[in-house]
Design goal:
Layout: H1 23-33, H2 42-62, H3 69-80, H4 86-93, H5 97-109, E1 113-118, E2 121-129, H6 131-151, H7 157-173
Antiparallel strand pairs: 1-2
Helix pairs in contact: 2-6, 3-6, 4-5
Length: about 180
């Protein structure tokens, strides 16, 4: 199912500027009236509330491992795509290179990642998990899976699979890059 319903325009990056007269805001408000949101606040509100609760639960689950959700995601990303640079990670996560550099340095101090020189470009450093980093990914996966299991306990297996498929579609439609 498309984000559009009954001719409502899909919001894209170039559509986000608002004219001084506020006409675009009025148009968007009128278009939203044609979209059947389950609650008065709509899906953006629900996604935000769910995100913050999910983040809080994930932070709690990762505390025993001394990692934040973004640190655990960085490790998971390096497991899936070994050899990324800190700059590549910063672009994927939408943070400044300096911020990513600090996070990577922290993970390196904990012996979870190691930087190695790229043989094709001596100035570039590639990041890889250490043995301890791979073990930590496994521990984090167990912890976050427990959060996920608890969060979706009111759903059937089939409903969870369908929700996952639909969210994946939305993710791709928005042009997001996987971790």
């Amino acid at each position: 199912m498309s984000l559009k319903k009954q001719g409502a325009p899909a919001l894209r990056r170039q559509d986000r500027s608002t004219p001084a007269d506020g006409s675009q805001l009025k148009d968007a408000s009128r278009d939203l009236e044609t979209f059947d949101a389950p609650f008065r606040w709509g899906m953006v509100y629900l996604f935000a509330r769910i995100f913050y609760e999910m983040r809080s639960r994930t932070e709690e689950a990762l505390k025993p491992h001394g990692l934040t959700p973004i640190q655990a995601t960085i490790l998971g990303t390096l497991e899936r795509w070994p050899g990324l640079s800190s700059a590549e990670l910063s672009r994927r996560f939408g943070v400044t290179p300096q911020t990513m550099g600090e996070m990577v340095a922290n993970l390196e101090r904990r012996n979870l990642v190691v930087r190695t020189q790229d043989p094709g470009n001596r100035r570039a450093l590639r990041l890889n998990l250490t043995g301890e980093g791979r073990r930590m990914v496994e521990l984090c996966n167990v912890a976050t899976l427990a959060v996920e299991k608890d969060m979706f306990s009111a759903f059937t297996t089939k409903e969870v699979a369908e929700l996952n498929r639909q969210l994946g579609r939305l993710h791709d439609h928005m042009g997001l890059v996987s971790g």
